[in-house]
Design goal:
By secondary structure, the protein is α+β, with helices and mostly antiparallel strands. It is built from six helices and nine strands. The protein has one domain. The longest helix is centred in the N-terminal third of the chain and has 14 residues.
């Protein structure tokens, strides 16, 4: 399954390139019109449903989730990072999945320089620029007892938990093929 999720960016590359080209035409800030750009307010989510296994991979600028991207030094910043990590540890609270699908969490992996879980999390040179654009990466593996009941993913809880997230670029692979979708708080339910 991990191979399938890793292959997702390559399988969806034509969609991503078309989307980046479309963004480039409408976005005059060329620095953010490129594929994979770090853009505040925008997150990426890959979702793969393969048999009974649902894998979700969320990548977001820390600014969207925590409200800052610098290393947490104050007690308030440390508390905010801990609270966000606790929220991210509960994927069934963040992603609205049909109860009838019977999905349960099997594994998760959370990474961010803010969590101290990536190489270079400690900046030895004291160079603050190294963490100016911190990201948070969350990977979840769920098992769904009745995957045919999983017709959509509701991202409303994610948008509600992290209101600075204004858009999620979603890449889906499921029983009906692959698709690229843009979700917003107003259009938060995405069909598989």
């Amino acid at each position: 399954m991990r191979r399938l999720l890793l292959a997702l960016p390559f399988a969806l590359l034509p969609l991503a390139v078309a989307h980046a080209h479309d963004e480039h035409e409408h976005d005059h800030d060329h620095a953010h019109g490129s594929l994979g750009a770090h853009e505040h307010g925008v997150a990426r989510l890959n979702a793969v449903l393969d048999g009974k296994t649902l894998e979700l991979e969320l990548d977001s600028p820390a600014m969207n989730l925590v409200g800052f991207e610098h290393a947490a030094s104050s007690d308030a910043d440390k508390a905010k990072v801990a609270a966000v990590r606790k929220q991210l540890e509960q994927p069934l609270q963040l992603f609205g999945l049909a109860k009838a699908a019977g999905c349960s969490e099997e594994a998760q992996d959370l990474e961010s320089p803010l969590f101290g879980s990536e190489p270079g999390a400690e900046d030895k040179d004291g160079d603050e620029h190294a963490h100016q654009h911190s990201d948070i990466h969350a990977h979840y593996q769920l098992t769904c007892a009745t995957p045919d009941k999983l017709a959509s993913i509701d991202l409303s809880p994610l948008f509600k938990a992290f209101p600075a997230t204004q858009k999620i670029n979603l890449q889906l692979i499921g029983p009906n093929g692959q698709q690229g979708v843009e979700a917003t708080p107003a259009k938060a339910v995405v069909a598989f």
